[in-house]
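Consortium newsletter contribution from the modelling node. Members have asked for a concrete example of what our holo predictions look like. Here is one, prepared for the S-adenosylmethionine complex that several groups have been discussing at recent meetings.
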Amino acid sequence: MKLSAFFTLSSYGIREILFKKHQPILGTIILTDKCNLHCKHCAVNNINGIIYPYKQIRNEMKMLYGQGVRILFFCGGETFLWEDQGKTVRDLTREAKKMGFLIVNIVTNGTHPIDIPEADLILVSLDGDKEHHNEIRGDVFDTIMENVEHATKDNIIFYMAVNQLNKSTIGKVGEITRRMKNVRAVSFNFHTPYPGTKALSLSAKEKAICCRKIEKLMDAGVPVFNLKSAFPYLIHNTFPVPCKQCVVVENGKVWRCGRCIDVPDLCGQCGYFFAAEYALVFRCHIKVILDMLRTYLKYI
Ligand SMILES: C[S@@+](CC[C@H](N)C(=O)[O-])C[C@H]1O[C@@H](n2cnc3c(N)ncnc32)[C@H](O)[C@@H]1O
Ligand code: SF4
Ligand code: SF4
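And here is the predicted structure:
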């Protein structure tokens, strides 16, 4: 991360903690909900199957920038399926950078060739070793590994949603992370039990075991893009929800924190680490703030 970006984000953080204006800093734009996969844990794919138009996405970028958002995520559906008027997600990334967003990240299932050196981070979902990943996502593990291997920049973070099916493979994902040259780190979430996916949820005891495994990876020098200081709050779901500094936009509609805010009682079972981490930072949890500074400087 450039030093100027670091200072801008830090000064936003200090203002937000002092004046509690609840101004958003992290924004996510959903480019499409169309997806080439049908993962077992996912409830947000292929609902309307629309690729949102380029002009609309541009306007959403401008709106978020105007509201003060400086960390932008492109998400889906599958982001690499997005294409309109000859533009791709790479063009959107370049334009977002030009517009002034300080950090621009993309989340993808990794089944398409990865060539977006302008992105700060490309989060490639990896839900276990070959056997477990394919059990959840279909037969795509080898394609993903090949695409990661041949990516044009080392700006990749593996992104694992830990659930009942793959909780035993945290260590293996750590090993894969360590041996791949284009992969900067691995980042974990716990399963969030959207309707129809409750059976994949982890109990607090199981989450505690997973956190110990993640800590073990950290201790062994595996790069992990998560904040250890937030683990106790994630295990027991005691972090303040929703995250007031995060917004999501899809098709002109804006949600505070996540679209999942519309699902009754889901926030109390939230497994998204970013929600816990940002919510705790802005409630002035000093340990989490220091952890975030250290981690972001290391990996972005
Ligand atoms: C919805 S996908 C969209 C981007 C892309 N298609 C992908 O799979 O990375 C974004 C991330 O959300 C995760 N995810 C989906 N359903 C989830 C759930 N119920 N709980 C936690 N994470 C989930 C996915 O594993 C993926 O890493
Ligand atoms: S690839 Fe992403 S959007 Fe598609 S089904 Fe899987 S998690 Fe959902
Ligand atoms: S806290 Fe935010 S990310 Fe978590 S379930 Fe609620 S709206 Fe979704």
